[in-house]
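Supplementary Methods S3. Complex input for the GMT-bound model.
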Amino acid sequence: MRIGITCYPTFGGSGVLATELGLKLSSRHDVHFICYSLPIRLRDEIEKVNFHEVVVEPYPLFKYPPYTLALVSKMCEVVREEKLDILHVHYAIPHSISAYLAKKLSREMGFDVKVITTLHGTDVHLVGLSPSYKPVTRLGIMESDGVTAVSKYLKRTLQNEFGLTREIKVIYNFVDPEKFKRVRAEKRGVKIITHISNFREIKRVPDVIKVFKRVLRNINCRLILAGDGPERLKAEKLAVELGVRDKVSFYGESIDVVTILNKTDVFLLLSQNESFGLAALEAMSCEVPVVATRVGGLPEVIDHGENGFLVEVGDLETTARYVENILKDEDMASKIGGEARKKVLRFFSHEKIVPQYESFYRKVLSG
Ligand code: GMT
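Predicted complex, serialized as structure tokens:
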């Protein structure tokens, strides 16, 4: 198949997932990324796929440069020149609308391209619900030839909030377990707690720092905060206020997630909402025990007490207790980590998930 992929080319989960999918598909299909810059995780493997840059021409009249339209034109060009069968867009806003317009224009030029939209999370449960975007998000989803969501939770939310009755296929996030695996360094005296995210409000990074402070009372540990985003400066300030700044390392945006995870003894994901939790999945694949909030799709990923722990949003006392138990009891930590990896291998490896996308493509192409 000849597949065009559009995503946000950043460290965000949707961009990471789209990039990893494109790379895996490239061994069997002709894959073309259409984005405003080279997706982060493509940097070292660009020879496997094709990249088409969307250029937004500036003009003094444009207070807001019309990226959505520049994307339509680039999509049409790639559909025409590369004879694409499918445009697979990740994150509804604005990609599904650009793809809808590109499909209409391409049809006028005699090209029949199918549009598949994958919904990732905030495009449905947060940004997509804002009155500025809801009607147009709904249109983009309705007009797609195929729609996938990354968890059952996200599918339900879409049906409830958007009143949609159309078919939505749930295809979970995946990792490559050969890439994300345990190659743990020798034992250290100090334990490491890690959180990786895009530092948005929804991630509740202050909760991570407050839990760390509680754990620090009883255990010699450090906190790694990897990633970057709007809440990062506030997080640094809070670490200073709580008197733990010297025990917290801010790593910024790092491509080497595997190395970070292999230093980690427990991973925290304390989000307000999370449609799936790719960061947690990557940790689980490296056999790192995860403590996460019982929200969104996380209960579909983590079975409480078996391969990780789930806590209520904002319950810092219980969260700190689970973290301490994991850090104190190495046997329990390695059992939970081992079970986490087993769950990844059973349900969330690229070998299980990528074929689900391929058969969905075939189904959509056959109408
Ligand atoms: O907020 C983020 O973590 C980024 C966001 C995105 O769309 O880039 O991630 C979402 O998509 C990921 C991949 O499907 C999911 O694993 C994340 O759970 C989801 N984030 C939220 O729902 C908050």
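Residues 12-15, 17, 91, 120-122, 150, 173, 198, 200, 202, 271, 273-278 surround GMT (CB under 6 Å). Residues 191-347 form a domain with the Rossmann fold fold (CATH 3.40.50.2000).
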